[in-house]
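Suppose a colleague, Dr. K., hands you the sequence of a protein chain of 291 amino acids and asks what its three-dimensional shape might be. Before reaching for any lab equipment, you can write down a predicted structure in token form. Begin with the sequence itself:
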Amino acid sequence: MTSKESRENAAANAVVTYLDVVFGVVMTARRWDDGSKDRMHDFYVEGDGRKIALEVTTIADGQRVGRDVRWSREAPDGWVKIDGLTGCWIVHHEGYAEAVDVVRAIRTNLPRLEALGVLHVDARSWQQHMFGPDILHPLGYEQTRALGLVGVLWANCVADASEALLNDCGGEAQVLRGFGINRPVDRNLPATVIDEQLRRPNLHRSDVEKLLAVEDATARHLWMWVELSEGLAMIRSFETEGLPEAELDADGIDGVWLGRCPAPDLVAGQVWLRGQGWSVFSVARDEVVAS
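The predicted structure, expressed as tokens, is then:
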């Protein structure tokens, strides 16, 4: 079973476990997409006369997912080892540039900044000096500019780092990637993001059309993993503002699930069900589904 199939099965079983309680009947998941033809939805979830078509996806476009995979390869767990660096650095990146370009810039410029004694940079500040003569450029200007051009927002060397921290993390940078960081926290932000995602052809409009094409379902549900990109802003909104008050504007879709794995054996998140609104779920992770 592939990693994709494991994630899809975990989503389907989370839906089943939650709906068992909501409907008061035993529900089962059955994989439907067997690869025999295009545009098949992933599962049927069935029980007591209900037949729910379920499609599982990730709340990001394919390019963004691929970019995240490459980030995981270039900076495992967000850490970058850097020759010539002594301290432990934290770097905040806007999230959209390719990992290889950002990591190369970090490895080239952080040691130079550290050698200059520049241990904190707001990488966007270089623009205010760009038209001034070279003699007036601040210390570390060229390095700051190079970082800013690949999307680094700021970089800090950890001040007064303990000996234990330096032993563990000295010569490394922790890169924090902040998709959507400029979007304000808003109780209805998750609903807004979902509405945007469902309408855009390069995001999830095709998933909606796939579900709407199902003719024998009593309901149509879309599962969206939110562990990437805009998911960070959505999770922050849920944690600080609570569940949205707004309904989803999703004609033909009866349920939208926002899932993540806060622990290896757990699937949790939020769900919107037509006629019932928003609620929270948390269930044990199960990756076995009947074909």
